Amino acid sequence: QVLTEAEQKNLQIDQEFIEFRYKKLIEDEIGETQRHQAADDLDVDNETSFMNQFRQFQALIEKCTLLHMEFWAQISEDQPDLARISDIGSKISICIRQVEDQFHKLSKVNPNNAHLIRIYAKYLAEVLHNTSKSEQLLSK
After folding, report:
1. Which residue of 41, 85, 122, 134 has the lowest C-beta tally within 10 Å?
2. Mean pLDDT computed over 65-82
3. Is the four-CA dihedral 65, 91, 100, 46 of positive or negative sign?
4. How many CA atoms lie within 13 A of 122 on its CB side?
5. Mean pLDDT for the chain overall
6. Which of these, 95, 137, 132, 139, lies nearest to 116 by C-alpha position?
7. What's the rounded Cα separation, in Å, for the pair 10 and 16?
């Protein structure tokens, strides 16, 4: 308001320069605040997207684990249904690839997320029985 009033008055050249400088500083500060606000909005969007993908990752691990349990239940029966075992095995194979793909996508977005790495390492060790790869991940 003070700068607007000063513009309407007849000022000397040095006072006009000071007025112009203050105006420029205020405009720059407002622009910087708006840029930070836009960057924060993007960060929130990225975080939301990551969390949605992370939930999908957890659901895939759960699905894969249940398929493994069903597979081993079929194997342990006295007379296992080979067609059913084959069907479950193909579903497991697809599920494993989906989990790996999802893990790699999430790792690219947030490579140092300890929770993501722990869950994947636990999945490798307890579901796929790949303890060497699990230990390798945890050692990073």
Report:
1. 41
2. 91
3. negative
4. 10
5. 83
6. 137
7. 9
- pLDDT tens track for 93-115: 999 999 999 999 998 888 888 88
Say what the pTM is.
0.66
| Banded model confidence at residue 89, pLDDT cuts 50, 70, 90 | very high
How far is it between the farthest Cα atoms of the chain?
Answer: 102
Tell me the CA distances in angstroms from 58 to 50, 67, 87, 89, 135, one per residue in order: 12, 14, 23, 20, 20
Task: Give the list of residues 6+ apart from residue 132 with CB closer than 8 angstroms, or none.
Answer: none
Instruction: List C-alpha distances in Å: 117 to 6, 21, 54, 93.
Output: 61, 52, 11, 21
What DSSP state is assigned to residue 78? S
Name the nearest CA neighbour of 53 among 99, 5, 122, 2.
99
**121: nearest Cα among 107, 109, 92, 108:** 107
Indicate the residue type of 29.
Answer: E
74, burial (CB in 10 Å: exposed 0-12, middle 13-18, buried 19+): middle
The answer to whether 127 and 64 are in contact (CB under 8 A) is: yes
